[in-house]
Amino acid sequence: MTGYQSASLYKRHTPPAERVTALLSQMTLAEKIGQMTQVEKNSITPEAVAAYGIGSVLSGGGGNPTPNTPETWARMTRRYQEAALRSRLGIPLLYGTDAVHGHNNVVGATIFPHNAGLGATRDPELVERIGRITAVELLATHVHWNFAPCVAVPQDIRWGRAYEGFGEQTGLVAQMGAAAIRGLQEAGNGRRQAVLACAKHYVGDGGTVWGSAGQYEWIQDNWQRAGSQYQIDQGEMTGDETMLRAIHLPPYRAAIEAGVRSIMVSFSSWGGLKLHAHKYLLTDVLKGEMGFTGFLISDWMAIDQLDPDFYTCVVTAVNAGLDMIMVPFDYRRFISTLTQAVEKGDVSPTRIEDAARRILTVKQEMGLFEHPFGDESLLPQVGSQAHRQAAREAVRRSLVLLKNEGALPLSRQTPRLLVSGAAADDVGLQCGGWTIEWQGQSGPVTPGTTFLAGVRDMVAAETAVYYQPDGRFPAHLTADAGIVVLSEPPYAEGAGDRADLTLPASDIALIERVRSHCQQLIVILYSGRPLIITDCLPHCDAFIAAWLPGSEGQGISDVLFGDYPFSGKLPFTWPRSMNQIPACPPEDSPLFPYGYGLTTNEGGEAI
Ligand code: BGC
Ligand code: BGC
User: Which residues have C-beta atoms less than 6 Å from ligand 1?
Assistant: First the structure.
């Protein structure tokens, strides 16, 4: 009997808990530890997945096959699953990836606005729908596990992950996070199964303090060597337990209520202790008090940060409550170290049993034993028109109008329109980090519609659209309206930690150049967070915060020309100066408060 057939004995006619118990009773220590191991796809062959009975394989940011297409993704992940099914017990694996704004590593997938933009929509129903669409695109490529949603509550917008949060307020994050989980995990719609969501990063990742990010000389990793930028990401959360429980914990309660079955632990620390070592918060609070019965996954190489001695790292993390380890490279070393720890009595067999049981229970609940594969018949839906329509709608809803002195809506019949800024015609800048590559990239990284293409598509045949990325229009050229699109360069994680969020002088210069050619100037900003725009605001007649809208830039022109109203509300307080970051002093007022956003009627009238 092959392994898969023997495991299949346990999948019919028996209640799930009993099936897992029966399976566990057959498993060796090595097989249980195999389930607890998650490996990055370039670091393991399918053969080794079968030999070690590996529980999970992941693609990190940019962990793409070559060429990068939905079909090659499906082929890659299918090979790993087939290998897992060839292991002695044929336990299916969970293939995981970060589909944090759509299935964003895949060229051709639908790229939605990053969470900050979705927070601006204030619409959980929309977020749920996006979750469902993302699940379809993931399942088309056999990816069953999404490391999303990020339910951080960012308290300092200098943080390079601020845009991964839905906003600065706990209630908004909790509501939107729960909606995303429901969408991803909801089966139905003709689908056999759904995707496993992962709330991250437990807990307080959004509450760390500038300058507190640690450096770990013992970690030899490119990312750590480049890590000098890391200033606040992965740092220390200060504040007492009351604050922790009030601000950062509630989204996890909401996530558990929404049915989340995996939670990723944060790189950050609290009270000088890394969360990956924090038995109180992982085991006592989350699994005990909050009753979380799913499993905990560590973050990328995060256990290595706990101590220079890897044995200590493994023992500490597993005993603190981690169930699966995102190793992600040297899985043999992890497996042998954990095996040794059990043999020496430093990790109890009961802890291993509990971890394996949690992982297998979730796999059972998902129906993975019955349906270990996704569904390649969904491949035509990856990046489909219907999915892109939903993304375009999300873009429309996410735009926050900060200023409008008669400039908007624009008339389609405007005789001449000047457009400038490199970002106006750049899908990569529209998408930001976590798009095709971990850090994101400028340029035509994936199919999509740029803002400029959207404008060209929408204006009347008689309208002349002039595009000059650097705003150096011929001296004689004048127009009723000019549009400048500015953007932050793409970034992800600590690489985006930025001490000074002031708009660069070159952006101000661009605005001034275009200003001299037009009656009315509209500025659109692509950014993962508010930037300091106080000096530029007087130069423009309208200002739109567009966040990181993703692949469907037409959503912006839809609203600009008045087909749809502006309705987004600020998910973050908009500071007047750097002195108001991280928090605006009580005696001061921000440039725009949380929740601000001008509205226009259908048809575009300002109200
Ligand atoms: C990976 C990312 C990961 C990061 C961690 C990158 O090389 O591609 O997925 O989050 O390393 O630092
Ligand atoms: C990030 C996680 C991500 C993981 C895998 C880490 O560096 O912190 O958010 O899920 O990499 O890519």
Answer: 60-63, 223, 300, 438
